[in-house]
Amino acid sequence: MKESTEKMTGARALIECLYKENVDTIFGYPGGAVLPLYDEIYKSDLNHILTRHEQSAAHAADGYARATGKTGVCVATSGPGATNLVTGIATAYMDSIPMVAITGQVPTFMIGNDAFQEANITGITLPITKHNYLVQDANDLPRVIKEAFHIASTGRKGPVLIDIPKDVTAQEIYFHYPDKVELRGYKPTYKGNLQQVKKASEYIERSKKPVIYAGGGIINSNASDELKEFAEKINAPVTTTLTGIGSFPDDHPQYIGMLGMHGTKYANYAIQESDLIIAVGARFDDRVTGKIAAFAPNADIIHIDIDPAEISKNIKVSVPIVGDAKWILKSLTKQVSTCDFGPWLQKINQWKKQYPLKYFENEDVIKPQYVIEQINEACDDAIIVTEVGQHQMWASQYFKFKEPRTFITSGGLGTMGYGFPAALGAKIGKPEKVVFDIAGDGSFQMNSQELATAVQHNIPVIIAVINNCYLGMVRQWQELFFEQRYSCTCLEESVDFVKLAEAYGALGLRAEKPDEVRPVIDKALESGRPTVIDFIVEKSENVSPMVPASAAINEILDLER
Amino acid sequence: MKHTLAVLVENKYGVLARVAGLFSRRGYNIDSLAVGITDDPDISRMSIVVHGDDYVLEQVTKQLNKLVDVIRVTDLDAKDSVERELALIKVTTDTKTRPEIMQIVDVFRARTVDVAAKSMTIEITGNEDKINAIEQLLRPFGIKEMVRTGKIAMTRGIKKS
After folding, report:
1. Inter-chain CB proximity B68 and A184 less than 8 Å
2. Taking CA atoms, what residue in A is nearest to B21?
3. Mind spelling out the 3-state secondary structure of B64-101?
4. Are both A161 and A287 inside the same structural domain?
5. CA angle, corner B29, sides to B25 and B30, nearest 5?
6. Which of A81, A248, A326, B10 has the fewest CB atoms below 10 angstroms from its CB?
7. Is B109 at the interface with chain A, CB within 8 A?
8. ipTM of the modeled complex
9. Each residue's pLDDT tens digit, A524-543
10. Nearest by CB to A127, which of B10, B25, B69?
11. Do A313 and B59 touch (CB under 8 A)?
């Protein structure tokens, strides 16, 4: 578009910019400072989803981004609206999710005066955004928005916040959208150094016991196919992180599940015994490594990551390759010779047989793992979103994910209350998919008000509440490490989730016996409505296996009962 | 170990907060910080002196490079760079001590920039050691006030930092 000869307001220009960025859906909540903007949203073709809390708008934009790969957009007003986004922005930041958050601000001449609903949101979000902006002149708005989308969706992805004072949205400008972004301080590396690629392939060819350790970066880079090709060429086992789940098919013979604190025993054993770890788009998080000094004591490490700052941050790396996972995996597959790690895979398969994930079934009481298995059986291509806690780990362990972007969870920040709004965003992004929010009774209550959003916008997600009347993960730690002093973790006398659903006009179902599990799942699937299923499960079930905090990851406990 | 980082940044509001935030978040103390514009008015240059081992420095450098507004980070080697700092020192004087102080100023090639009945203000430029040395010598006379700019530095020769 050429520079328009007609003037338009900053608010109108913002809508034009969103069109230019191919945004069709935004999640938000109106307020005083964004009134001019909401007036333009009213006149626009944008699909605006009104969440019932700004935090949920951020999580929904995040869920939308994770499900689609596009940049999620959320909007909130100044002050409390903006601060309510903070948890959602931090969640996206920790998991490198592309997001643009737009906040209203008090008029420029009032900034700094403690005006009504004023908060210094650019200051507050400084450490949890990839970058942020305070727009002081509407003429800068098109450039800033172009830059924001560019920064959010390139390199190591992440949230960008744009704070726009009310008078800037009212200011009239000649609209001109730039074609190019010019940022001399921001030039992400995509192509890996070929010398390093060569060196890496030498390490691989020399190794006897390699393990591929794949993280969320594979999904962010849309590199699942490349990962599979590479893994098959070198015939090495593949373990994934929590956010990497789905990047490699669960039913693949080389897949050894998740590693780390609640990973499989065989993945952890494999890592500990390996002589080479090929980390791709993963960052050696403490939940993965356990006691860092005892992590993979015999292994050299090849680290492929788009963010140079991740290299040798937590663990010393032998061969760093900075760049895009997709590009590097492609060239590494081309470079490396076909390998055969037969004896090594045999040993791992032995462990697989010897130490499978397991729980004790029960005919009278619903086991939470059983619920996950039944959901998997009923709908194996669903998008599974989770909250945070025990149910999250069970979902990661017992659902067999085959495709990227089908497991959506807050890994880095571990945000309770994330799942339901993120599920709404995922469903809007992928309406053809069945979307479950696997929730705990604690987590669901952190954002259950979004039932109103689901019903108003008719977003038929299914919330499977794994209800054990406890903040189960904390309870588990209290049981194991605090001599069963269950301080403030019992949620007995809690909510009637069926009635809660009905109060909002959603469908409420309950299962109290194992044989009721599958029928309620089917009923929810048939209803096509937003549904809450209250699964009354075994109260004291623990997530197993488990590596205690700061133990080595092969010091892994069986906790099933 | 002490390092001097030359950090070229976009000359925009908020950049200092971003840079300072990186250090504070990781608990790294900044020994000194000097900021000013460069020959290009759109670019500012920060000279940051930090304490830390190689791991700390590598982390700080990488994190600085991640900031969108940071254009370039260079770790200046003391041997290959010119370092300067400026200090203003206000010393208590009387007619008896004044000549002795003047002598010190002379030896150090410092300058007297203000003289009053009971005080003198001295301007001194040099590397850190030189400023520390004159401070030591002036202290017995009574230093009323002192301000140091923090170190600025530049590579020797044609090479740009």
Report:
1. no
2. A127
3. HHHCCCEEEEEEECHHHEEEEEEEEEEEECCCCCHHHH
4. no
5. 110
6. B10
7. no
8. 0.90
9. 999 999 999 999 999 999 99
10. B25
11. yes
Together in a domain, A394 and A532: yes
Set of chain B residues whose Cβ sits within 8 Å of the Cβ of A122: 14
DSSP reduced 3-state for A534: strand
* Same domain flag for A91 and A205: no
Helix ranges restricted to H, B3-146: 15-25, 54-66, 98-107, 128-138
Q: Clarify whether A116 is annotated catalytic.
A: yes
In this predicted structure, what is the pLDDT of residue A2?
52
Rounded Cα–Cα distance for residues A304 and A359 (Å): 36
User: What is the C-alpha separation between A134 and B17, in angstroms, rounded?
Assistant: 14
**CATH number of the domain that A335 lies in?**
3.40.50.1220
**Catalytic (active site) residue A476:** no
**B70 to A313: CB separation less than 8 angstroms, yes or no:** no
Which residue among A331, A354, A377 closes a domain? A354
Cα separation values, A73 from A27, A48, A160, A177, A348, Å: 6, 10, 10, 19, 43
Q: Is A166 a catalytic residue?
A: yes
Distance from CA of B92 to the nearest CA of A (A): 41
Residue A269: CB partners within 8 Å, gap ≥ 6? A348, A351, A355, A554
Query: Is B65 touching A (CB cutoff 8 A)?
Result: yes
Q: How far is B84 from chain A (nearest CA, A)?
A: 27
A8 is catalytic: no
Residue A473 annotated in active site? yes
| Residue of B10, B17, B62 lying closest to A309 (CB–CB) | B62
CA B1 to mean position of chain CA atoms: 17
pLDDT at B86 over 90: yes
A39-61 pLDDT, tens digit each: 999 999 999 999 999 999 999 99
State the pLDDT confidence band at A3, using cuts at 50, 70 and 90: low
- Write the DSSP assignment of A190-225 as a string of letters: -SPPHHHHHHHHHHHHH-SSEEEEE-HHHHHTT-HH
Domain count for chain A, please give it: 3
Write out pLDDT tens, residues A388-443. Answer: 999 999 999 999 999 999 999 999 999 999 999 999 999 999 999 999 999 999 99
Query: What are the φ/ψ torsions at residue A53 (nearest 5 degrees)?
Result: -160, 140
Domain annotation covers residue A208: yes
**Distance in Å, alpha carbon of B82 to nearest chain A alpha carbon:** 26
Q: Does B57 touch chain A (CB under 8 A)?
A: no
Across A156-184, b (16+ Cβ under 10 Å) vs e yields bbbbbbbbbbbbbbebebebebeeeeeee
Domain that holds residue A276: 194-354
Question: A102-116, A200-214, B25-39: which has the minimum mean pLDDT?
Answer: B25-39
Q: Chain A contact for B1, CB < 8 A?
A: no
* A348 & A379 share domain: no
Claim to verify: residue A144 and residue A205 sit in the same structural domain: no
Question: Which residues in chain A have their CB less than 8 angstroms from residue B70's CB?
Answer: 185
